[in-house]
Design goal:
Radius of gyration: 22 Å
Number of helices: 4
Order of helices and strands: HEEHHEH
Shape: elongated
Helix content: 55-70%
Structural class: alpha+beta
CATH superfamily of the largest domain: K homology (KH) domain
Number of domains: 2
Oligomer: single chain
CATH topology of the largest domain: GMP Synthetase, Chain A, domain 3
CATH class of the largest domain: Alpha Beta
Strand order of the largest sheet: 1-2-3
Number of strands: 3
Strand content: 15-25%
Distance between the termini: 70 Å
Length: 129
């Protein structure tokens, strides 16, 4: 059942990498970073680590560079806890799903406000008829 093993390993990596970022990395470019998910290749040799970074686009890019630079260090800290033949190569990616969700929520709010404005205008027109 490779799907189950892959999912368990991805969850373990997410938790371990999160802890390492919080406790071990002292890079000032790493402001508020959270690991949102990890996707493993079928052979378990590569892991895409999705992170959410609070800050401007420049701060997000700087945090990604810091994480990619620390990937080897993170792998070495994870290695003793992993019981696999290979320690996956870590590839950090920005998770833009939170930004996307915020944008969708903003658009829905704007549509609702416009609907309420239109309905208020319609009811005023009905009063004057």
């Amino acid at each position: 059942m490779p799907g189950y093993r892959q999912a368990r390993l991805a969850e373990f990596l997410r938790d371990e990498i999160s802890a390492i970022i919080q406790r071990e990395l002292r890079d000032p470019r790493l402001g508020f970073v959270s690991v949102t998910r990890v996707e493993l290749s079928p052979d378990l040799r590569h892991a895409r680590v999705f992170v959410s970074v609070y800050g401007s686009h420049e701060e997000q890019e700087a945090a990604l560079q810091a994480l990619q630079g620390a990937a080897g260090f993170i792998r070495r800290l994870i290695a003793p806890h992993l019981h696999t033949r290979h320690i996956p190569e870590l590839h950090f990616k920005l998770d833009r799903s939170l930004e996307h969700a915020e944008q969708v929520a903003r658009l829905l709010y704007q549509i609702e406000r416009e609907r309420q404005t239109d309905m208020a205008g319609t009811s005023k027109d009905d009063d004057h008829s």
